[in-house]
Design brief:
mainly alpha, 80% helix, 0% strand
């Protein structure tokens, strides 16, 4: 009961300061021009890379539109890219005007809105990456049951379900402990006293995050390992059959097999990059919520979390670029091998 009274009293003081006049606590700290330019360049790189990524996925989708074995993975990757780009544009449209005028437009309400949106986006992207990994796992390990397990209407229902779950987690985090969400926005933390006793609401929001973090992390790791092992076994089987001359009817099958392996490697790369960006985000958030750190350390962990979140928006373009470079280098090596003169024994 005391916790709710303290929160209500704090909110009344903040709202009174906002309604009366623009409090100096809500003035945004001045940042260097280098930081602003770096943020703008990174945001432009993310947007352009994701737009090019959507074009490349759409081009390959038209090329293989008759094959439903790859359409679900491409549609899910396209959705991931579109969600990342839309989220970046939405957050920028909220933060940039406040940065231009020099104070937070809307005060604590703007900070809470940004925090909830970041929480929803983080959970939705994590669950979507898990679905992409599971989809490729079923395509590799259960090919004969794939069309039944990954039918379009089931995937649509699953996407609606994870959107509802992500929204509920974000809204519950706001009602349980709205100040924990401000940890996501570095410039919002200038009004928060971070040195305080950990209460039950902070533990509740922590367990709410871990309920999404731990299962998804385990599923991503297990499916990635299983797909890697299956790809290695497929490579061994293909290598053993390569010494036998195949009829013309088998070349199409080999082309589909190469496409399956390539798409699986892209999904594995997306999973690995997502985990490399996602785990530091959660660690920084847990340190902020459960450690009595000073203001400078608190803001430092927030900036680390923001940078990793922005890098997380580049996982699909980086994975596709890595796959293309690998294919180009493989074709170059095969051309060099064919151009070498045959040396008689």
């Amino acid at each position: 009961m005391n916790i709710h009274d303290n929160i209500s009293e704090f909110m009344e003081n903040i709202n009174g300061a906002i309604n009366g006049s623009i409090s100096k606590d809500w003035l945004l700290p001045k940042r260097s021009i280098v930081i602003d330019i770096s943020f703008i360049i990174l945001a432009l790189v993310i947007t352009v890379s994701n737009v090019k990524c959507v074009y490349k996925i759409g081009k390959s989708f038209r090329k293989y539109k008759s094959n439903t074995f790859y359409s679900a993975a491409r549609l899910l990757m396209t959705l991931l890219v579109v969600v990342n780009t839309s989220f970046l544009i939405l957050i920028s449209s909220i933060i940039v005007p406040s940065q231009l005028v020099g104070y937070w437009i809307g005060g604590i309400y703007t900070c809470n809105t940004v925090g909830v949106l970041i929480e929803i986006w983080t959970n939705f992207v994590t669950l979507l990456a898990t679905i992409i990994s599971l989809e490729r796992y079923l395509a590799i390990k259960k090919p004969f049951r794939y069309n039944n397990l990954c039918s379009p209407w089931k995937i649509k229902l699953l996407l609606i379900f994870i959107l509802i779950i992500s929204s509920l987690v974000g809204i519950l985090s706001l009602f349980l402990n709205r100040f924990a969400l401000i940890a996501y926005v570095p410039v919002c933390q200038i009004v928060i006293d971070n040195v305080h006793d950990i209460n039950s609401l902070e533990y509740a929001t922590l367990w709410l995050d871990m309920s999404c973090f731990i299962p998804c992390c385990g599923i991503l790791l297990l499916t990635t390992m299983e797909v890697l092992l299956e790809l290695k076994q497929m490579s061994v089987r293909v290598r053993n059959l390569s010494v036998i001359p195949l009829p013309l009817s088998q070349y199409g099958h080999n082309r589909d097999l190469r496409q399956t392996k390539r798409l699986a490697r892209i999904v594995i790369m997306i999973t690995v990059l997502h985990l490399l960006c996602w785990i530091p985000q959660r660690i920084c958030t847990y340190i902020q919520r459960l450690s009595g750190i000073d203001q400078a350390s608190y803001v430092f962990y927030s900036h680390v979390s923001v940078i990793t979140k922005m890098l997380d928006m580049l996982v699909v373009p980086l994975a596709i670029f890595w796959s293309q470079q690998k294919c180009i280098s493989k074709k170059r090596r095969s051309r060099i091998g064919k151009s070498l003169p045959l040396v008689p024994p």
